[in-house]
Structure formats: structure tokens, C-alpha cells
Design a protein that fits this description.
four-stranded antiparallel β-sheet, binds zinc ion, flat, Dna Topoisomerase Vi A Subunit, Chain: A, domain 2, alpha+beta, 15 strands, 26 helices, DNA Primase, Chain A
């Protein structure tokens, strides 16, 4: 396997430097709970946290969906990366040089390509910035200053200018030794009909676009004159995917985390204006429809999502779609509306950041926003007006997941329209029935609710099923004893010597337990395979911290032996019935040997075994 290309020592060093809590915190808001951290799982939709991170073991595990592992596994799942890309990303992050010749040829190619693209982009960014402050950029700089942007903010967002020249970047880059291939791959240059290359961006103010980690991945160019389109984006490239990225997220993350809130806007200029005016928890989409993936990324960072779109018809339509996207992603949003300006940028220009901050503070919930818009378009003192609003609101209310929300909003609507709540409830109910009817047979896009907040029972059931699949049908008690042994050994690998006095691999009925035990018996290091590390993370999360691994080990060894004893007793009965005396003698010998072992495991004070053990640590 390709992972073997990395020396074990390198991976260990990297894992210890790349702290799992800080890595996961870049994607998920974590809160301390005892010795662990918990948060909403980034791998399945949930409203109550069942995702836990263990800083001591440097592992994560989700009780809801069963995903788990170490820093590498996390990045692989989160960013859909290969193991090598995850290793490389982490190494770059913590500043650990990669060992030479550690990549397979395919990965080496991709890595070289990404590096080439990045180099071309960085070259262009630096040239654009120079141009902004040169004689060519006078008009562009004037425009930015006219929008109230300070030099600090211009630097922070690395804004630049590209002159109205056909091959400004293309020529410059070729002279600087950057291959034409990378100019094309990065979307900076386009090949003309006669085979020559020319610049994609000309006479535009240039906005660099970064990924979540702050690496440059593309540009947006704003026309200075009347050229269409007003905003031109880099095309999707091997390192830029519009449906996934959020503008300025790496700059906004600290603000989002500290305020517990994110504000989503349409335009890049809106975002920059907000930062200029002290509102630093703002991001924008990529000019394409907001995706569930983008919504999920934000909901993992905070709960309070505020949409502040343009106030025209197109903006209102986009907000409606965005509301649905956040609902579909398992969250909710609020919506800012205002008068006297067409977009947030213009609003702060006229009235200042303080006023806009208040708008964000007081923004109505998504459902109230939809109501207010509906009510604006009708005269609700008339029957026709009431019917119009009702027709808009019933499908909206019927689509809500939460009965509580439905009840709250139905009450509100009954007051606003001055109609009886019961009649609205009936309408919602019959709409839902129709909806269900039409959906029956069709596959629902929503996952079944993760209603069990602890998730523990779900999980143990799925583990049992898992064992069942392998045909052994292991009793839960036996399974727990085996897992307890592994948990103790993971905590303190030296205990393998103590364990091997009583056990060998044939004592384990669970495939995973046997595999890990065999591995530990031959080397004190845990296997690096991510399926195995995910399973180990799960065991660690299930048992919680282990204070006295020796005791847990011996308790579980004894339990396992007792299970084996009862299994032998069963077998003895069968053999007696079959009158197979030879076999019976063998079993009796085996039984006595086992009994002796069980007695020898009863050392001092090992007799007490809490009934609920092993349990998941609460809180
Ligand atoms: Zn999960």
C-alpha cells in the first residue's frame, strides 16, 4: 500500500505536531466536555453533538454515524483527499519537510501540477498588486478609495489591478520562467485560434480567492468600465471548485468563532466593506448558487447564519433559495432587509457599520422573512390578501421538520392574519399528508433523523450487526470483554506481556479485536491503516478515558475466560448427549485449565467489576 512509503517515525512525528483538536476546530465548533471535546459531526447531519475528539489519544469518533480516526483520516474524509494528500497538507501546515521520494508517481504528478498552478497564481497576484500602485492603476486605486477602503484593507484582501493589455500576465510569466501550461491550467491565460495565448483578465480590479486554509486558488476580476460581465471568475481548475469555496472564509473564521455568527453576502465588495467597517464575520459565495456543501461548512462553525443579499428581485430570489439550502443542510438562517441602498456595501457607505450591525442583530428568522415578504405583496385586511399569504405560508410551514417550530409559526400566522389557529393547523396537516402521499415510494433526500442524541445504543447495535455479518454472532458481553482488552492495550501497549500470559490471538472471536491484538503482540505501535485506526477511535470513545489500564485489562481477561468457560459448559452438554467420551475428556481438561487461569486472574481487589462497565463517560 502507498502509505508504507512513509517511515513510521515521520508519521508519528507529524501526528504529534498536528494537534487534532486545532485541526478539527478549523471545521467544527468544539466544546470541552471533561477530557474530551464534542461538537456537531461534520460527516452526518445532526442537531445535537455526538462527535467527540480525544486530545490524549489524538482520535475522533462520532457516536451517530460511526466515523472515526486520527488526523489523517479526518482530513481524508473532510477534504476527500488521499492519504498522501492528507500527509502532505499536514506536513505543510506544521512546517515538517516531507521525506524525499515518498510519493507515488501519480501523486507526484498531481502535486507538481498544483504547485505549478499556485506559482502562476502567486506570480499574477504580485504583479496585479504592483500595478494597482503604479501609474496604470490610478483609476482602479481611486475607485477602491472611493469605496472607502483603507490601505490596510486593500493589503489584507491583496487587491490588485490588471492593465488593459492582451498579454500582460502571459508575457510577464513566460519571461519569469513560468510554463504556459500552468498559465492555462490556472485559468489565467486562454489559447487563441492561432495558438497564441492571451490573458483572461484585462482592465479589471483583481480579487484573489483563497481556500479555507488561506491558499490562493483563483481570482475574481471586476470590470473598471462597462465591460460585461461585471465580475469575471477564474474557471474551475484542479485546485479551484466554485461549489465548495467561500470567499474570505479564512479571514472571517476568527470573527465567526468569537461571535458565534456568520453573515453571508452576495458580493466580494460587500464582504470587504464589512471588514472595513468592523464587521469581521462575513463571507460570500462564488457567484454561483449557494450549495448544501457550502452551507454545511458554515453550520459546522456556528449556528447563527444571517443572509444579507442585494435588495432587488434577483437578490430576494437568491435568498429564498439560500434559506432552503440552509434548511436542507440541517440549519436555519435569518435574513437582513433594509431600505435606502441596493446592497450591504452601499448601505454601510451611507449609514455606517454600526447601523448594519444592528440590522444583523435584529434580522428576522427565515420563516418570518418569508411571511413579511408575502404580506408586503398583499393587503391582509382583505379576504383575498389573507388567502394569498396563507397559500404562500402553508407549504413553508408544512415543510418544517420541527413540530415546535410549526406550532410557534402557526400561532404567529393566526394572529397576523386574524384567523383561528386550528384552521391553519388543519391546512398544514392536510398539506403534509398530501406531501407524504406524493413522496411515498420515492426516495427521501433527507437522512433518517438522528433522534437518539447519545447514539450509543445505535452504535452498539450496529457493531453487533457487524459481528453478525462475519458469521460469528458473538454475545455482547464477550464482545465488550474483547474490546476492553484492546482498549487497555491501546492505553498502555506494554501490557501486551501481561496479556499474553493469559491470551493468544485465538481467544478473540471478533475479527477486528483479533487483528489489532495480533498487531500489538508483534509491535507496540498501533497499525496506521485507517480502517483500523477508525475502529480504535471508536473503542476509545466508547470506553472513555481509562485510568487504570492494568485493572481494566485483567477484569476483561477474566470476563473473557468466564465466557469461554460457559461456552465449554454448553459444549460439554452436547458432547455428553452425543456420548463422545474422548471429546468429553478433552473438554474437561480444557475446562480445568481455563478454570485455573480464571482463578489466577483474581488478584488482589480485582473482584469488583462495576455492573455498567464498560460504559461511556457522561458529560
Ligand atoms: Zn457523525
Amino acid at each position: 500500500m502507498s502509505r508504507r512509503r512513509y517511515a513510521e517515525e515521520f508519521l508519528t512525528e507529524l501526528r504529534s505536531r498536528a494537534d487534532i483538536v486545532s485541526l478539527i476546530s478549523e471545521y467544527v465548533r468544539l466544546r470541552r466536555a471533561g477530557r474530551r471535546y464534542v461538537g456537531l459531526c461534520p460527516f452526518h447531519q445532526e442537531k445535537t453533538p455526538s462527535f467527540s475528539v480525544d486530545p490524549e489519544k489524538q482520535l475522533f469518533y462520532c457516536f451517530g454515524c460511526g466515523q472515526g480516526g486520527n488526523v489523517f483520516t479526518f482530513l481524508m474524509k473532510m477534504e476527500s483527499m488521499s492519504f498522501q494528500d492528507a500527509v502532505e497538507t499536514l506536513a505543510r501546515k506544521v512546517g515538517l519537510p516531507l521525506p524525499k521520494a515518498s510519493l507515488d508517481p501519480e501523486a507526484q504528478k498531481r502535486r507538481a501540477q498544483a504547485a505549478g498552478i499556485r506559482k502562476a497564481l502567486e506570480f499574477a497576484r504580485d504583479r496585479y498588486r504592483e500595478m494597482l500602485f503604479s501609474a496604470h492603476g490610478v483609476q482602479a486605486l481611486k475607485y477602491l478609495e472611493g469605496r472607502g477602503l483603507s490601505r490596510d484593507i486593500i493589503d489584507m484582501f491583496q487587491l490588485g489591478y490588471v492593465p488593459a493589455q492582451w498579454d500582460f500576465i502571459t508575457q510577464g510569466a513566460i519571461k519569469a520562467g513560468i510554463g504556459v501550461r500552468y498559465l492555462e491550467l490556472s485559468g489565467l491565460a486562454i489559447q487563441g485560434r492561432r495558438g497564441t495565448y492571451y490573458d483572461r483578465f484585462r482592465n479589471r480590479i483583481m480579487f484573489p480567492i483563497w481556500d479555507t486554509r488561506g491558499e490562493l486558488i483563483g481570482f475574481a476580476g471586476r470590470a473598471l468600465g462597462d465591460e460585461e460581465p461585471k465580475y469575471l471568475n477564474s474557471p474551475d481548475t484542479p485546485i479551484f471548485h466554485k461549489g465548495r469555496e467561500l470567499y474570505a472564509l479564512h479571514l472571517a473564521k476568527p470573527g465567526i468563532r468569537s461571535k458565534g455568527r456568520v453573515c453571508v453576502m452576495e458580493g466580494y465588495m460587500d464582504v470587504i466593506s464589512m471588514f472595513q467597517n468592523g464587521i469581521d464575520y462575513v463571507v460570500a459565495g462564488m457567484g454561483t448558487a449557494f450549495s448544501v456543501e457550502q452551507a454545511r461548512a458554515l453550520l459546522l462553525l456556528c449556528e447563527d447564519v444571517v443572509l444579507a443579499y442585494d435588495q432587488d428581485e434577483a437578490g430576494k430570489k437568491a435568498v429564498r433559495r439560500c434559506i432552503d439550502v440552509f434548511r436542507e443542510a440541517g440549519g436555519r438562517s435569518r435574513v437582513v432587509t433594509f431600505e435606502g441602498a441596493k446592497d450591504p456595501d452601499e448601505f454601510v457607505g451611507k449609514y455606517g457599520g454600526g447601523r448594519f450591525g444592528q440590522l444583523i442583530e435584529n434580522a428576522p428568522t427565515d420563516i418570518r422573512f418569508i411571511y413579511e415578504e408575502a404580506a408586503k405583496s398583499a393587503d391582509i385586511s382583505t379576504v383575498e390578501g389573507k388567502l394569498h399569504v396563507k397559500d404562500i405560508m402553508i407549504p413553508v410551514l408544512a415543510s418544517l421538520d420541527s413540530e415546535f417550530e410549526i406550532s410557534v409559526y402557526t400561532s404567529e400566522l393566526s394572529r397576523q392574519l386574524d384567523v383561528r389557529k386550528e384552521s391553519l393547523e388543519k391546512d398544514v396537516e392536510s398539506y403534509r399528508r398530501r406531501l407524504r402521499g406524493s413522496r411515498a415510494g420515492a426516495s427521501e433526500y433527507k437522512n433518517p433523523k438522528n433522534s437518539n442524541t447519545t447514539g450509543y445504543d445505535n452504535q452498539s447495535r450496529s457493531i453487533r450487526e457487524d459481528y453478525g455479518v462475519h458469521g460469528s454472532g458473538i454475545a455482547l458481553g464477550r464482545q465488550r470483554a474483547e474490546e476492553g482488552i484492546i482498549r487497555a492495550l491501546v492505553e498502555k501497549p506494554e501490557l501486551i506481556r501481561m496479556a499474553s500470559a493469559y491470551l493468544d490471538e485465538s481467544d478473540f472471536a471478533g475479527n477486528m479485536c483479533r487483528l489489532v491484538y495480533t498487531n500489538l503482540a508483534s509491535s507496540p505501535k498501533l497499525p496506521e491503516d485507517h480502517e483500523v485506526s477508525g475502529w480504535i477511535a471508536e473503542i476509545c470513545a466508547k470506553f472513555g478515558p481509562v485510568d487504570r489500564p492494568e485493572r481494566v485489562l485483567m477484569d476483561c481477561v477474566r470476563r473473557l475466560k468466564e465466557f469461554q468457560l460457559s461456552e465449554l459448559r454448553e459444549e460439554m452438554k452436547l458432547v455428553q448427549e452425543a456420548q463422545d467420551e474422548q471429546r468429553l475428556m478433552a473438554i474437561i481438561n480444557e475446562y480445568q485449565e481455563l478454570l485455573r487461569q480464571v482463578k489466577s486472574t483474581r488478584g488482589d481487589s480485582l473482584d469488583s467489576f462495576p455492573d455498567d462497565f464498560p460504559g461511556r463517560e457522561e458529560g
